[in-house]
Amino acid sequence: FDLWKFTTLITLVVIGFFGYALFVILRQKRLSEVQRDFINNVSHELKTPLATLALASTTLHERSAEKDNKYLTIINNEVARLHKNVEDILEASFIESKRPIQKAPLQLDQFLNTLTEGFKSEYASKLISWDLTGEANRAIFSNEKLLEKCIRNLVDNAIKYGGKHIKIAFSQDQNQTVISVADDGPGIPKEHLKKIFKKFYRVPESQHQHNQKGFGLGLHIVKSAVQNLGGKVGVESKIDVGSTFKIILNG
Ligand code: ADP
């Protein structure tokens, strides 16, 4: 047994291991930087022309003759759909890039009140009835924009899949804050409940009695965002009764 050779071998193995770990960390860092630049570039290159298109077609719509309105409405709707899809893809990449999130104190009752009033006017034409209940005894420390995006995705889904009565509720104890969005839509088949938060997962249209289009990104964004905010998301659902999504935040 040659102690000298053995020690040299162990030292080389340890150095090799740390060297490799350092290489992996640096490569990961470089990849995150590349991903961040990519998101910034794509944001600009896709969103700017879409915004210009939306403005141009709305203006044309206002000035156009009756016979062209049908086609301009189609263009408007499709541009809006494309815009939403691009936003969702960018949002998902942004969240996955795990950039540090800025947090600030947020007054929950005030925040949800304003948000719900916004939903009411946005969805006025769909004749939805709204309920907002809850009590907040302290501010939470969170990111307003990200939390708004999560609630918006849940509300958009609730209405998209057929809900007509939307209940938003919130509660707090010493350790947790819970925000829930409940609908009276078709419900989600049990075997899909665990999978709907996965990226690109959609319940097959035939099993869901709907013909709504989508990317399967909305709930993935909610789940990742809530995790980044320090919490988790859950769902309960009953066929023909409705679905309730819960955002549970630590703190
Ligand atoms: P998308 O709406 O683009 O399909 P989501 O990730 O937002 O993607 O939702 C995943 C799937 O979960 C949807 O395809 C739909 O089948 C189901 N789902 C989500 N929210 C609801 C809801 N409130 N009621 C019924 N089904 C829902």
UniProtKB/TrEMBL annotation:
Q: What class of enzyme is it?
A: transferase
Alphabetical GO biological process terms: cellular response to phosphate starvation
> Where do transmembrane segments lie in this chain?
3-26
**Has keyword Kinase?**
yes
GO cellular component terms listed in the entry, alphabetical order: plasma membrane
What UniProt keywords are attached to this protein's entry? Kinase, Membrane, Phosphoprotein, Transferase, Transmembrane, Transmembrane helix, Two-component regulatory system
Q: Which domain of life is it from?
A: Bacteria
What EC number is given for this enzyme?
A: 2.7.13.3
Molecular function terms in GO for this entry?
phosphoprotein phosphatase activity; phosphorelay sensor kinase activity
Reaction catalyzed: ATP + protein L-histidine = ADP + protein N-phospho-L-histidine
Cite the Histidine kinase domain residue spans from the record: 41-251
Question: Does the record bear Kinase in its keywords?
Answer: yes
Give the protein's recorded name.
histidine kinase
Name its species: Ekhidna lutea
